[in-house]
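Section: Multi-chain targets

For targets with more than one molecule, the full set of components is provided together so that the structure can be written out for the assembly as a whole rather than chain by chain. Components appear in the order listed by the source. The example entry contains two components.
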Amino acid sequence: MIRFENVGMRYGIGEEVLRDVSFHLEPGSFHFLTGPSGAGKSSLLKLMYFNQRPSRGLLTMFGKDVVQLTHKDLPRLRRRIGVVFQEFRLLDHMSALDNVALPLRIAGATDAQIRDHVAELLTWVGLEERMHARPPTLSGGEKQRVAIARAVIARPSLLLADEPTGNVDPEMGKRLMHLFVELNRLGTTTVIATHDMTIVEAVNAPLMKLDRGELTLAPAPRPGPPVNPLGKT
Amino acid sequence: MKNPLADSHVSFLPRDSAASGILPWVIAVMVFLSGLALVGGLALHRAVGDWSTTLARVITVQIAATDPAEREFQTTAALDLLRRVPGITTVRRLDQQAIEALLEPWLGTGNVSDDLPIPTMIEVTLSGAGSVDVKALQARLTQAAPDARVDDHQQWLGQLYKLARTVQIVALAIIVLVGLTTISIVVFATRAGMAAHRRVIEVVHLVGATDAVIATEFHRTFLRVGLKGSLAGVAGVGLVLVALHLSSLNMADSFLPSLRPTLSEGLALVWLPLIAATLTMLTARITVLRTLAKMV
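Its structure, encoded as tokens over all components, is:
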């Protein structure tokens, strides 16, 4: 699914923000990405959603060498990826419903499919009353849930989330992690960047630790697959 | 290309900001200027056509013998000959009063003395343009009246055509320059719109939109703006034409061309906003596609 081999990345002519990063993510795997602020987590995620290209090394995504990809190859591959941005990146002039529907519309889904799926998902993340609200009127936590709903609505092959539970209360955090674990059980490869070690502990998934651009891998706290933090399947 | 976003009439671009502000007015002014140039060029074309059609059916025979008796003798011979030539419908000798009226602008009223040798003028109307071989007619007239000169106005018409052609080239150049200026302005406006919505474009790109989908959203916005602006511009041209028409109503039988648009000129004005809006739309689309191709 994703293979990094000695990947380095720098912005312009600055210092490398990622150095000799090597790892391999199997399809359907679940990983947490941790590390202090400025360690390179967001840069690593940007490489994975084709927002940046590596300065050196080999990066293959979905079996394709990223450096070889042309501009025209990217939309098709990006439709297989759901991204939860740290700063949400919602479109302010569109309702929560239309923001979440965006990936489906881009993929050519019908209005009926969009209405049913989006409404259901927004209800699940507790926003049934706020479907028609625009992002500027939403709280931080509500925006985050809209951003998560947009990332998962099209059932992506790869889900990348940057601090997805940073603005919600612990109970909603668990509910959102439940969503990610369920999606992962359906086959979505999941990478979640977080500082919240209680979530890491609860879900029990392997860790990718970044520090000053260097990556180390750590196994899950306990043997076995990722666990649903709500305790139900 | 089908735009998936269009199915639900949801645009990811804020409707009022991508190409709002001054752009519709700029397009209106550009269309107004090119509309005036177009109508002016077409009216001149029509006027030259009218003049040449009229003049091509009229020739003038001038008999410039200095001796009055000889002039009169040659005039009678010329009139006799002209009335027998096939293709000539009327032959009219201008009387002394009419000739003096023609000379008035140069000599003033009542300044034509009796001893001034004024040539005889004969106005000949042909059944159609080219119905008479002017060179052959001149040869026959020279035998009957050696001092007769046929003037088919070709020299004057040639100069008129030249002037009209120059004015039409200037009008076309104005339309082309206005078109190029409009394209440049739309390119800048599109780039400004893209810069203003860079964050939106990035998000839409990251959720998998193709460049064509994004370009379609932009070109729809610019099509709307282009139509709005160019319709206003054409309305302005219409108002100017009405004003000119009303102010020229009293100029009966004017030498100036009529400013009332004909059907074909009216149709050209109808096409103008469509062409301008399409040009705006295509320029925006191409600009967006070119700019996006440079992005990651």
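Residues 65-146 of chain B form one domain.
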